[in-house]
User: Fold this.
Amino acid sequence: MPLADSDGTSLYYERHGSGPAILFVHGSGGHHAAWWQQVAALRDEFTVVTVDLRGFGGSDSSMPEFDGQDFPGDVVAVLDQEDLSDVMLVGQSIGSVAALRAGLLRPERVSCVVLGHSLGGISHPELKELAAADRAEAVKLPVIDRLLTKPFQRDRADLTFLFQQMGTFNVARMQDLRNLDTNGPSLEEIEASGVKVAFLAGEKDAVLSVKTVTRAHELLAGSHLEIVPGAPHSMYWETPRAYNEAVARLRRTLIAPKEAV
Assistant:
């Protein structure tokens, strides 16, 4: 069982396949196994790494409380443990905040960060206002309706049930991740880092609107925008083929191998 140490905290992670590296960072209800549809589809072409943040899945959950500010360091610990370079970090929802911060902490290892259904905690007044307006609409819906479409819930009751069960393996909860947004990076800091950023959005995302994500893309110079038609907030789960194709395309096109030193 592979484990990494993050300042004394034991982290569970998995590494599959070979080739250019992609590391997935789960959201508030996930853990490493939530990426089962991605690992199976991508491991023949890429090195696929999945990690459990502290308090999630198989990682240490013994601490009395969790601080979201520690999560980027958890991602960094796995990057360092596996000595990965030219990595593409892919975050899901609030996991994108940890992914972006980890990328900024290790730009020598991370070439690109994909912000899935998230603004990555970017500190910008206009974006904070737009995201807050989206959240105000989202909270009017039942949690499951924010994450998966109603047709999917009706037609795939089995996968909907499994999706809901994923969170039962975690000790940490959504509130433990919220303060990741505190003191987020500015647009200027991201641009200066040299780390490329891609926004991956779903057309039917009930949590973060395409309008908001598009505006973030417009404000962040050099960023890439990928909008998947018909996809919800949990695109990786409900429409995995489209999601996997988008991730593979971004990995192939956005990262040029760095010259050996």
About this structure: The radius of gyration is 17 Å. Residues 240-254 form the longest helix (15 residues).
